[in-house]
## 1
Amino acid sequence: MVGGGLAGSSAALELASRGVEVTLVCAAPGATALSWGTLDVAAASPLRRGGLPLRDPASGHPLAPIGRVHAVAAANPAHPYATLLRTRGPEDEVKEAVAALDAWLEPSGLRVHGSLAQTRWLADVHGALRAADFAFSGAGEGDLESAEEIALVDVPGLPGFEVRSALRTLAAEMTAVGVASRALSIVRLVLPDALRDDAAQPARLAGRLDTDAARSALRDAVAALGTEGRLLLFPPVLGLEPAAGTRAWIEATAGCRVAELVGAPSLSLAGFRLDRALGAALSRAGVECIAARVERVEIEGIHARGVRLAWRTAPGPPSHQAWRTAPGPPSHEEGTATLACDALVLATGRFVGGGIVERGGQLVEPLLGLPLHDLSGRRVDGLAARQLVRRDYEGEQPLFGTGVRTDMRLRPLGPDGLPRLANCFAAGDLLGCFDPARDRTGLGVALLSGRRAGIEAASC
Amino acid sequence: MSRRIRVPVLVVGGGINGAGIARDLALRGVHCALVERREFGSGTSWASSGMIHGGLRYLQRDPEVTRHSCVDSGAIQRIAPHLIFRIPFVMPVFPEDPIGPELVEVGLEMYDQYQPFKNGRSHTRLSRAEALRLEPTLSPRIDCAFTLDEWGVDAARLTAANALDAAERGAVVLTHTELVEWLREPGGGRVVGGRMRDRISGEVLEIEADVCMNAGGPWVPKIAALAGVELRLRPGKGIHLVFERRVSNLAVYARGVDGRDMFAFPHEQNSMAGTTDDDFYGDLDRLEATEDEVAYVLQAMERSIPSIRQHRVTHTIQGVRPTLWGFGKNEDELSRDYVVVDHARDGAPGLFTIVGGKLAAYRLMAEDAADRLCAALGVREPGRSATTPLPGGDGTLDVLATAKRFRTPVAAVVRLGFRHGTRTREVLADHDTDLRTDGATAPRVVCACEPVLDAELRHAAAREGVRRLTDCALRVRLGVGACQGAGCVGNAAAVLADALDWSAARCVEEVRAFVDERWRAVAPALGGSHLAAMEIHRHSFLAGRGFTS
């Protein structure tokens, strides 16, 4: 397994569950760690341009998430969903994948809430509405429609959350979308002196909230926020360690429902918690994790036989992911090693993950030199990135739909249109022909394709 | 029924020329109206190299320009010490250069004579080894190198400081307000003011004036044409590349394939490289760098700094120089000097135009233009802009004490002090007062690249007349760092929404305009490691915050 985001972890966990010995190589956290609390299989932002409709254009009926999944695949036959959902259909495939993810994460205290049958209305830190299908613990408890009264929790000193503006936006959007109106208010959680200086750095505050010391200092202030029937919506800083259960502690202390607002990249620790929970799941499943960069793939005929690793500091558990405790190869300050394998899964991401890079003014897939295709299916490896951008920011950007193409078994295709290797599979953002920022398929593709790649790899 | 006001002078164009003139007049007690179509300095001033250099390159052809620039650079340093920073330059000499070190040194010795005017140090000659020690990014192929001394400035802030000072001294200062038509005396005679339209509210305002000044920079021909006057420019487009961080310790000279001088220079939080100079007759309102221009700058820089392509270009800035008309010369040889034209002889008495100019000598030109206007008005008051400090320029800020007093990170106070000088404490005190009734907290960092505090944004909205989110990129350098606003723009919009009472829809519209503008600056130079940053950017704004349809 190359890549440790949601796609790579799902593949590894799926393989491990089938009794396959898996080693996961991961250079650094990727896009998963930057995610913001929702698992978007086919989410929508109402009142927004682009993305998927909230209503069926023909009947005018509200579209359940399941309808949006179908709409994605229908609108873009090259979308990974078209491949992934062709045989079984989204109902079973998504249900099964989400159930598997929930089971992997649950021992770490992270659950996956939601369903494809009903849109759940969540609010983000700017007060904008999200029509979500699934969300992780934190944002996942923030369904607006099931609350009698909603209070946004202002935490003075915390950057990145402008509570008055968020309230105004939320009120306007709930009215515009027709989410039944609730009483909206702002409550303030004034931090005790011991925590006040931490507020300037959200991650530090989140880490403190996991501790007993901070909780005892906060207990009275938190208890004062609660009223029966109220949903307290916090900025997404409720803890770093999912197992610490900070959200649940606040809920118990306040005596009313507590959730986080869906985050923004500058202010969300939801992705961080997801990354940690995945690491813990890998560890529980006995997956060996190595912090190293893959230099090249060793190939014999049409088979990948191993990967050449390189590291600068001691290999072993990634230092930034201390929970990934499986031992790595013998400790060296700098070195290389070759790992043999019977099957190889690439879940290296797009630009954030480093699955696609621009070198010398040319886009390349660095491990196998795989052909790359843009959103419309055009071959684009060897072109410069700036040749694939358009001036309309919100419109289609071929560059950001760029990736590899695969066969039905998720094996990336070579220049001749046939699988490049018989035992190599691709998953996640490395897959081309879809633009998750625009079609809002988010982590859904990562989960579905990761799991499928794991199942396929197990057959090798 | 439109509103109507009366002032002695109407200045159209809020670039450095217009703002400088408005301030110069205000200091003489002449009330004027200054009208800017977008944000102060958003045309050419902001897109300059941000230097008040003496113009070494003009020394050979036009020593008068060099002298003007150096003398005025000294004056600007006195009135706005907080906005100015020293930029030492290193000029490498390569074995293949047509002009050898001896001749270069002759030129620099001449230039040394002007350095005292602007508190600059004399040049030094460095051996190859000395040069490489001082500036390790230099190509090891150099023979030797020279240093010389120049000064940088935040040009957008300098422009705003002039306009805001004019406003404090009684001028009517309007941004996002455009000239619809000139008011004429019956029979198409004397120009007696202008009809303005507020581009945000749509309101119309008539400004009657005794004399009118067209200070529209590259737009002067368009503005003059509204009075039936034909004006010719030789507009020259110039772009700079902006790097994620500082590329070199010193500013480094480079030479383009066509022999033009360029440089890569540390500027505020980044490095910039440029500039190009090409005739431009396209749409001034949708100016974008081209791939060719980007490639040209990188290629030129590569000879002096071989590693230049390894650095991340975050975006480009581009502008058009309102160069005086002169036919047949190469773009670079055209004068950067200026003229003030009285359009009485063109059948439009009462209207003047200022054409051309240079950031480094803006004050001198503004004073000269104000002299002309005062003569037309019969005002005898002398100019005082060379000696009266700009807002915040009247002393030094105790950064550490200020940081402590207002519980604000030192790094943020340093940058705040750079923009606001001695007024930094007022910016922070306003915030304190606002919040005392509101669960007092220290100011929060909104944009970490600069950094920009929420207090500064609130101050910009309440006291500096910022009206749009896009204004803040210029006024306080919001969202122009590595992430191009992905991490801050939503929150900055929320702060302004609070201060300016924007609706949710307006807020989203402001974010969209900001992001569109950033993208146009990013796309032409997009590549390398910036791809990951822009992938996050897109997720933040499309999947994340999204936009109203």
Note: Chain B touches chain A through 54 residues (CB under 8 Å).
## 2
Amino acid sequence: MTALQLILDGIAAFLTLCIFSFLYKDNPFYKFAERLVAGVATGYWTMLLYHTNFTDKVLTPIFVNGQYIYIIPALLGVMMWTRFSRNWAWISRYSIAFYIGIASGVTIPVALYTSLFKQLEATIAVPITFSVAGFNTLLIVIAVLSALVYFFFSTAHKGAVGAASRLGIYVIMIGFGAGFGLTVMGRVALLVQRIIFLKGYVLNIASLFGG
Amino acid sequence: MKREIPLLIVGITGVMMFFQYYVPTGWSTELFVRSQDWIIVIGILSLPLGIWSLLNANVQKLQKVKGERFYSAVLLIGFLVMVLTGLRRENLEAGSVHMTIFSTVLIPIQATIFSLLAFFVASAAYRAFRARSVLATILLLTAFIVMFRFIPLGPISTANLGAVAWILSVPNMAAKRAITMGIGLGATATAIKIILGIERTYMGHD
Amino acid sequence: MGILEKMMQLDRRWIYLAVGLAVIIPAIVGFRVPVAVSPEVKRVYDFVNDIKPGEYLFVAMDYDPTTLAELNPMAEAILKHAFSRNEKIVIVTLAQFGPGMVEQITNGLAKEFNKTRGVDYAFLGYRPYPAITILAMGVDFRVPFPVDYYGVPLDSLPVMRGIKNFYNVKGVIDLTAGNTADMWLVDGNGRYGFPLAIGITGVMAADYYQYLQSGQLFGIIPGIKGAAEYESLVNMPGQGMAQAAYQVVAHSVIIMFIIISNFAFFATRRRRGQVGGAR
């Protein structure tokens, strides 16, 4: 490991500890690191957008390749900037309208297909037989229907509807419990990675002193 | 003019894009490609709005808010350093000063900020995760079974892994399927309302 | 205040300390933990394994440094697996800070496996608005990405000659921590029908099993455990397997806290019930 890498890792370790200091209480070190990352992140993203997006999709097509048709979406994009003006903000609606209209139109068929049709098909596709898979399929059908009933508010949750709704919320709670169990794993992983990094840095420092 | 024409644009483009999906001919595909391409360009040019807002807010704080001056200066200096070190496209490649600052500052801080969630989830679990009711008990027991799969307990672990696999692929899957179907219907309904001009919140106020 | 009441109102900083120690102790006292492979991860492994040398795999690394702890290990494992089999890889990122991390990982692995950018793999770069980008890539990668991340026209990259869109790749693996997975499902697999698998964080893992059952996903790599499983399958231990021991101790501590909290809760409630009954 070079001296430069050790110094850089030292800076990274210091900034890591600045953020961890928040666990005791909010303090200037934490605030410093928080604002620093906001500035660095914004600066990084600005240059990334400029070089790889603005240059490749706007400047080069119009001024290098002569594809003047791109002037139209470029103007629509610039019109978005009028949002900052109280008197001229209405101009930005034209650009927003294009984006919203196209995105909405494209969404309808694929959202229905992915989230509704394929899911319905999968719920009833596996036959209900006298086997473990068949029994699980029956459970899935009952669980999906009851969970859907729980979210249906156009009728009072009484009687049979109430019973199905009750079963539905039990099923949903199992889902949330599973989600929480996996969430703990995910959050702990984030912490462990930082600890592994700090451990590596400490070992590198120790090796300098013959440890 | 200020509201009617945008509504007309939304309606026409929305209907066109909807029917395009079902009419995959040559001109229809060309229309689709052209529209996606243009949306990407419009989007790229609108993103600086957010950058400008952040910088403007911090310049204001630097000038007016006493306790925040130092921190606003830190943010603006960080921004300027990244801009100055990233002036050439080659600076976006690994090994440059720009990317060294990315690895040394941005990655550790962002990763550590989110790692704090491990502490918060433990604290929240201690304070709120109590079997106060039947529903809470079901949630708690399911979470326990899923969390136990990390702890190697020999044959108990084998049985637990089977239980977790069943939980994830039957009741959990069913619950999430119902939620997904609801979300899909909701997204479709919202898109239809936007195209028909019923939903207009995206236009803001006059 | 009795001990039970004190337990109920424990200062959260003691909990933070316990969690901190729970992850520091395995760092000092290392130990190995066995990894059992789940079917959904095995399916991703089998898919990558069945791609022939020279065929294409598309990897979308749609995550930021905030979740690199869970997603970097699986990205490395998948790329190592594909590189070791001489598969061609096309990489894209739809996350704001993704390019920096893609650069780090691909540069390092390319050197390790003696792969040349532009010949063995291509990094197309970053675009905002993932849904629109995915829709555009489905027609032609060159629509959203006329040049790659480094400014080289796609047509001059040997690896990109002969491939136009998703129909020319064997499948797509999306590694993500946000709703980009939904966009790949709806706008990618939903519209174009290509095989899709996702590598996701633990937080999101439980939300995608319905797509696995319906066949819209051919596999899921759920969080750091999934990464460890993939590493064990490819026999290339990395951060995923290294984290397993820490997860054991941390989970044990959190489970213990929940048990203590519930014990205190029920004991306090029972005592209040007895006091109320005595009145």
Note: DSSP finds six helices and no strands in chain A.
